[in-house]
Amino acid sequence: xxxxxxxxxxxxxxxxxxxxxxxxxxxxxxxxxxxxxxxxxxxxxxxxxxxxxxxxxxxxxxxxxxxxxxxxxxxxxxxxxxxxxxxxxxxxxxxxxxxxxxxxxxxxxxxxxxxxxxxxxxxxxxxxxxxxxxxxxxxxxxxxxxxxxxxxxxxxxxxxxxxxxxxxxxxxxxxxxxxxxxxxxxxxxxxxxxxxxxxxxxxxxxxxx
Length: 209
Fold this sequence. Notes:
alpha+beta; 6 helices; about 20% strand; globular
């Protein structure tokens, strides 16, 4: 009886998690748009990761004292970075082959300046806003081109079904779009993955829109 109750409780929690993620996808959750200092978000995420990730993961934060800010919702922006960090953690631990040594390096870095050449092909040609970049990089298993093309699709996942809903990166993509940002990814099997998020720098005029 206890075993069945535990299965029911776990199933209930997973159902609740899926509902919350679907609410985020449909943007039915309350969103508080305000100036958000990226340093505050990233330092909080770094602390969470340091306290919860496997000790085989080395976490490096670069330029986390950045003064860059964005017009966004603090909690949802935190969810974006944390989702990417958790995926990186999995790529360096549970997604490795059984014969491989778990562990690696997670690097979270802020770039306060992004060149026009880097932004070319990512933002519209007539977009004159200034952007900053957040990079979440791991040394995990990496992904091939076929996987990369599908990672932002709802319910697509390369993990065991018990480890996720396949909605994490879809939510990440939608939230970034909602805040006027863009996301790009570089990866290859065996070389790790880097997610690059580009956000327009905070403009006080947007608060009046």
